[in-house]
Specification:
- A three-stranded antiparallel sheet has the order 1-2-3.
- The protein has one domain.
- The longest helix is centred in the N-terminal third of the chain and has 11 residues.
- It has 116 residues and is of the alpha+beta class.
- The termini are far apart.
- Helices cover 17% and strands 15% of the residues.
Amino acid sequence: MPGFGGRPQRGFNVRNATLAEFASVMQAQFMDLPVIDQTELGETRYTFVLTFTPDPGMRPFGGATPPPQAQPASIDPEAPPDLFSAMAQQLGLRMQKTKAPVEVMVIDKIEKPSSN
């Protein structure tokens, strides 16, 4: 079973996960846009620790919406790199914004359940 946990600035732990599973967790926990695995590495499973400084606009760990007044944190020369740099430096992966097809769920009708 894959496992995920920890805090980005201290090390976000990924255990026994495919990159598609990792992308799904990144989307659910941090990002406000879909995250799609386009590595073509398939079902290969990885264990690693990713240390990064979340962008002020990112959701805090746990998936909560960031406060609208989120301000950039003070610059700390000892702070880990931002997510995009950390992915490249620590994992050799490039994360970029692009257009790609994604699966969506469309609900076209909703009704109250009938009483039995």
